[in-house]
Fold:
Amino acid sequence: MKKLATKKVSHVCPRNCFSSCTFVSTVENDQLSYLSGAHHPYTNGKLCAKGYSYIEGNNHRNRLKSPYYQEVKGSGKFRKISWEQAFDFIVREIVGIHQQFKNLLPLAFYKGSGNLGVHHFVVDEFFSSMGETTRLIGSARPSAGLEAIKYDMGTVKMADPLVIKNAGMIIIWGANPAATNIHLIPFIIEAKVKGAKVVVIDPLYTQTAEHADLYIQLRPSSDGALANLLLKKIVATDAYDRKFVEEHSFGFEEYFSKIRHVDQDYLAASEVPEEAIELLVDWLKDTRTVVHIIGTGVLKHRNAGQNVRAIEALAAVHGDIGKKNSGIFHGLNGSLKFNNQMIEGKNRVIGLNELVAAQKQNPTIKMLWISGANPLTQEPNPQSLNEWMSNIPLVVSVEHFLTPTAKMANLILPTTTHFEEMDVISGTWHKDIALNEPAIKPFHESRSEWEIMKELALRLKEFGLCSFPVHSSEEEYLNAQFNDAVYKQYYVKNVGDLRKHRPSSNLVDSVWGKRDFATETGRYQFYSHKAKEKGLPPTPLFVEGFSPTHEHPFWLLTPHHPYALNSQFHYLRLTDEKEAFAEIHPQVARARGIFDGEVVKVFNEQASIEIKAVYSSRVPKDIVMIYQGWYPKSQLNVNDLVSSVETDMGENISGVKGTAFYDTFVNIGKL
Ligand SMILES: Nc1nc2c(c(=O)[nH]1)N[C@H]1C(S)=C(S)[C@@H](COP(=O)(O)OP(=O)(O)OC[C@H]3O[C@@H](n4cnc5c(=O)[nH]c(N)nc54)[C@H](O)[C@@H]3O)O[C@H]1N2
Ligand SMILES: Nc1nc2c(c(=O)[nH]1)N[C@H]1C(S)=C(S)[C@@H](COP(=O)(O)OP(=O)(O)OC[C@H]3O[C@@H](n4cnc5c(=O)[nH]c(N)nc54)[C@H](O)[C@@H]3O)O[C@H]1N2
Ligand code: SF4
Ligand SMILES: [Mo]
Structure:
């Protein structure tokens, strides 16, 4: 009998996920046969259901096998072409653009969050190596939160999330880690066992709320009102950090004079029962170490930045900033330090929303390159995006699957997965870094994004249009991305070092311990001159957001699915949910004569979709909940209902404001 050639290979999950899990594949005769989690201080060697399903995904019958071309976007008349023909199309288009416009501004690049590995920033580097091109910035940006942090503390810093297990209280504002950050849950449970109180603040009774000692169901976008009220009450009972306020902060008096007089209005705004507030104030009085986790639920509303500032102000006054086992946790730990992640290109930066809304720009977009993104299910108002894309002469999508976006491309280029390419992945939440090694040959004709860009660069160099450095291997390319900043953070200089490195935590147990805030005043700012200059409120006083209307009396919340990752893993069937559904409060449904399981319409001024209604008492009466994502079986697009509403802040971070995905209002009715 022939002996099996077996090997074990190390990987890192490159998804836009808090865990960045490390794991090992067993490869038998060049086929993936088994996956198991690897040692890791945050994930403890366990993957999520999506991670364990990777072999099924990698060999899926619907995975793209070769480049495809269609003349008319959306016609579905794809024909298989060779890589040589694909490169010819692209080079011809780029050279043509350059001849006509004498610049490459009509060439646009849109990058999604499909793969966060350092390898994948090769596309950013490539587009910056061609002089000035256009960058389309997508809507899913945490920039409103980042800008808020800037006004308060000057820059983003986050302690190691491992310390959460030692906190005395954990307050979760608008995040659902039981679905979206599963490895955090054991730390939360450990803290609970040690006596910590867990508070979950969310309009939906989520999987995370089930772990809470106190669940606060608040009205969407009113976190700022609740935070202001809590701050006022802890100051009144003298249970606050007077020393921090007096010695390390700026503008407290001015801020406090404004919230001194607010009371019942605030309760009304947040719709939180007074007993819940009193209980939380009591707990805060007795708890020294408090962790605040701020999720994207807070960031996806019009008044996002202002609400983040209000939560931070509460944390500051309570004395949670700069203290061990306390502080503010958001998913942004400043891990983008590699060379190709920090390229300052001379690019024209435009928010995709703005561009699509305007439908014209000068010079107009002639070619669009989409990498790691599925904007036609993930962006707001995909109808307009679809129309805009249909008029672009050449749309290229680099993909694994024939997504709704790939169907609207002229050219689809199949690319490798983390089993088939080398990559380096640094956590965006925890502080670790790890090397992903290729285990098997690329799937059919797939090529890695580095190889695609390198091949294109070789061809464009003949026309003098690109200065992208041509390396001889993925490893050599990756080695060229390491620098001093990377070394300072991770103590590694190249891929070779990472081969020897075993993820370990150099525990950063607090940030701002020296209270050396990076603001203009060097202090924590309850008052920000910079915010004022930008026309924003200088203090974190609550600003009311949007509300449902008579015609559209329900909020539509479209959070992240436990068994998907945005539009990925659509092939997974881990639950009975074969199709999209809308959760509606049973009393509301009954009052409208809607049965549990009936197909209804959910509509607003932008669209109407037909979807199965499911009775659910975890949604309040004025909320409809539909998980966002790609539902190939249901043939509906949830984001058709979502319009492009800007957040209050964000422009000073990414050049474009964030998007208030959750300020969407709908009505429901029988068909
Ligand atoms: N399984 C899974 N994991 C994921 C993802 C996924 O799609 N699936 N996506 C990844 C990505 S890209 C991201 S950005 C993260 C997102 O991770 P989370 O921030 O946990 O994601 P959301 O689903 O947006 O959850 C936000 C919660 O906020 C609540 N919420 C809505 N509005 C408000 C409000 O005004 N105030 C408060 N307090 N709560 C509010 C919602 O009801 C929801 O329960 O997860 C990552 N991990
Ligand atoms: N209604 C609503 N909409 C939302 C949100 C919401 O809460 N509600 N959340 C928003 C958020 S937070 C986010 S981050 C966005 C996410 O939106 P996107 O950034 O578009 O992310 P994905 O849906 O994961 O799509 C990524 C695509 O990349 C492909 N891909 C995976 N790996 C690779 C690779 O290695 N190379 C290439 N070239 N492609 C790859 C996948 O097949 C997939 O089609 O969605 C946003 N949209
Ligand atoms: S999706 Fe997240 S939790 Fe699941 S394997 Fe990947 S990194 Fe780990
Ligand atoms: Mo996200």
In short: The longest strand covers residues 608-615. Residues 16-17, 113, 173-176, 179-180, 201-204, 206, 220-221, 223, 295-298, 301, 557, 559-562, 564-566, 662 surround MGD (ligand 1) (CB under 6 Å). The first helix runs from residue 49 to 52. The radius of gyration is 25 Å.
